[in-house]
Amino acid sequence: MAPPSPSQTRQSIPRDRFGSTFSAYKLQTYHDPSSRGPSSHSIRTLAWSATGQHIATGSADRALRIWDPTKPTPKSSTSLTGHTGAIERVAWNPTRDNELASASSDGTVRFWDVRTRRSTAEIKLGGEGFTLAWHPGGRMLLAGRKDDVLVAIDSKTTKPTPLTLLPQSVQTNQTIFSHSGAEVILTTGAGTVKFMAYPEWSVLHALNAHTSACLSLDLCPRGKFLAVGGSDALVSVWDTTDWVCRYTLSEMMGPVRSVGFSFDGCYLCAGSDEGLGVEVAHVDSGETVHVLQTAHPAPFVAWHPHRYWLAYSGDPGGLKIVGPQGLG
Q1: Verdict on whether the full-model pTM lies above 0.70
Q2: Strand ranges (DSSP E) for 18-160?
Q3: What 8-state DSSP symbol labels residue 320?
Q4: Three-state secondary structure call for residue 61
Q5: 186 pLDDT band (50/70/90 cuts)?
Q6: Helical (H) or strand (E) element with 216
Q7: 3-state DSSP helix/strand/coil percent for the chain, to nearest 5?
């Protein structure tokens, strides 16, 4: 699976220096002023824009907010209103930095222009929204419903239109596209990772990844590894050349809700809603190089697309990001 085109990124930090370097970065809290309280404002999804200039968060209390990571004050953020249910997933268009899509339990997907703060279109899914994945070309958006139906949406028509309904025979938890856009990769409740051809939607093959449900996944920017998080509290790391599991990360305390590679593909972390701390592993060796201490479980984690900045959810105070404010 070929990696995306190279972009201007910072130089990688060697494995033996990562822990000392990363631990010197400052931790910043981004508090949403519209929060109705810590429990209702639980962040359910977060995502960086392609350039890393913005990060979006969606919450159980319908709050959808865009943050400038270098300006943690609420007045520097943007609130997007319109959903009537919890925000389950946010995803930025990979080719248009100001276009955001959001899926909600209200049964809709909304498209947003963050410059105008307005919803440019609304798609009724016919069921509660659960997952989102953009094709690398930035035209097609694949949404998933909680009843395990995938909905392909053409976002570049005058009015975005659902193209195809794709019922799945097994619980489907997360979807992503390969870097080439030729495959859709799905995690399932049967412990498998399923590969489908795009745009034919035919099943290519399935990977028996875990003995329980597969919940989350991410493809290394270099295209070399696929990481899969399971309800068994394990992260399995697969070599995409021969589809052999190279190792597993076993320090999680509960179901793995998110996994993510750093911009250079050198480091990997995962999030769970049980246990404390975020483990950072060196991808090539599987060695733990740092543990980010957290006061609360951090179910959703996401690396900045071009820097060693790490965002995570789970703290009652709001979104947390390590890095934007520099060194300690």
Answers
A1: yes
A2: 25-30, 43-48, 55-59, 64-67, 78-80, 87-92, 99-104, 108-113, 118-124, 129-134, 140-145, 149-154
A3: E
A4: coil
A5: very high
A6: strand 214-219
A7: 5, 50, 50
